[in-house]
Amino acid sequence: MIPGRSPGGGLLATLDPRSRTIAAALFALVVVGQDSLPTLGMAVTLALLTAVLARLDPIATLRRLLALDGFMVLALASLPFTVPGETAFALFGIEASQAGLRLSLAILLKANAVVLMMLALLGSMDPVAFGQALRRLGVPEKLVQIYLFTLRYLDVLHHEFRRLRTAMRARAFTLRSDRHTWRSLGYLVGMLMVRSVERSERIVAAMRCRGFDGSFPVLDEPSRFRRPDGVFAGLALVGMSLLVMVEVS
């Protein structure tokens, strides 16, 4: 399994990857433009329903959301004390505004809704299929290749990093807050970069030997829009229309 991929798929696995990609992008655009807390609560509900349809692993998904929320809470903790408005409470003599609290909650709901929808629609998709979908949607070929190469060789570099760390431990290296530790970590990063460059040169040479012409051939027959994709598109439009209508009203 590709690192970072969410296991699942469920009913959504039968859909064309392009329809899932477009739906995820449109949902993110719509949700980011909303400010009403009820609307954002509805967006989170829609994302939860989509996650259920995608059959995401509840434990793994919850861990990802908790990691996001932990970072977001730390980042948004200062907003209630910096945004002017009616006082909600005071902490050590510093007043926190209701507008700041509302803004923090809105940003938190937006982030959770968008990330959960991305995990449901894109995280459960095969990464190569996602790259092919981007290409068929008109994304520049260079960007698609960068995505596919990054996806493939992040895992390779991670294994290389683990080999170097194992070699350091075999030489009784332990992390300390001293000059030797920082110098050793610098050597580790430098060696990882050198080996990455060497591997990239070997990859380029191997690709040229195989006649690489700047694009990856597609061996599988491309998927097509079918009736389930039309039903999914209709439901997605209804859901996003509801979000906009609730916000306007």
UniProtKB/TrEMBL annotation:
PANTHER family: SLL0384 PROTEIN. It comes from the Bacteria. Its main location: membrane. GO terms for cellular component: ATP-binding cassette (ABC) transporter complex. It is found in: Cell membrane. The chain crosses the membrane at residues 22-53, 65-83, 103-122, 230-248. It comes from Magnetospirillum fulvum. It is a multi-pass membrane protein. It holds the Pfam family CbiQ. This is Cobalt/nickel transport system permease protein. One of its GO terms (biological process) is cobalt ion transport. CDD domains: EcfT (cd16914).
